[in-house]
Amino acid sequence: MAEAVVDPRRRAVQEGLFSKSLTAIAKIIQWLLLSLLFSIIIEWAGMVLWWPDEGLDHSRTMLASEISYLDNDFRRSIVTSDPAQFAKRFADNTYHYLFEVTRFVGFINWVSPPPAMNEKGLRPKLHRIFNPIAEFVIAMMQVTQVFSVRLAILTLAMPIFLLFSLVALVDGLVQRDLRRWGGGRESSFIYHYAKKAALPLVVLAWIIYLSLPFSLHPTFVVLPFATLFALTVAVTASTFKKYL
């Protein structure tokens, strides 16, 4: 069978800016949904295995702790003048659109009360199904609110990554010029690996913080990853090729 002749004039179709933007947004949404799903599964597993005595109080305490971090430590932000109110509004809007607009809360209020003695129809059957998993459903709703607050906190913390990266970029370019004029050796191996590690560090910071099954001050997550991100930027800039 004759092999297909490849036309050398054919060129690979490159994605445009709009399609790349849509792809990036879709990937961000995908990772956020996976983080939310993972945090809900961890909370459910913890209610059965690790904190059965706390039950719903565990996710409720996490929500209160996350909001207290905002009230105490996030007084100012470039993104908004009132970070705590921004995060609370974001969590309330998420709860409203996910559970109130969809009538999910109304369904829970309808199916939760015990049926009357002679009540017939669909509600008694749904109540028997819902009653054993009621705490898990409410925990899922509370974890979603915790997720929303943490998402708002990470949004408020993004200028830290930008500030650290700008300082690291300047330092890296200075080191590059010193290496260029001093006749130093360059390493494309270090450059390419440092360049590839920058973006995954930001993604990893978001996934870890959003999926934590316990309350942790965001400083202990944001600052280490912002420092590592700045280090990769500095290494990438300093190991860039000698001549542009």
Description of the structure:
With 244 residues, the protein is mostly helical. The chain has one domain (31-238). The chain contains 8 helices and no strands. α1 (17-49) crosses α7 (188-211). Mean pLDDT is 79; it is low at 6-13.
Q: What is this structure, in a nutshell?
A:
The chain is mainly α and 244 residues long. It is 73% helix and 0% strand.
Main attributes of the structure:
mainly alpha
**Mean pLDDT value:** 79
* Span of the ends, CA to CA: 49 Å
Percent of sequence in beta strands: under 5%
Number of strands: 0
Q: What Rg do the Cα atoms give?
A: 25 Å
Tell me about the largest β-sheet.
none
Number of helical stretches of at least 4 residues: 8
Helix-strand layout with pairing:
Layout: H1 17-49, H2 56-73, H3 83-100, H4 104-111, H5 122-130, H6 134-182, H7 188-211, H8 219-238
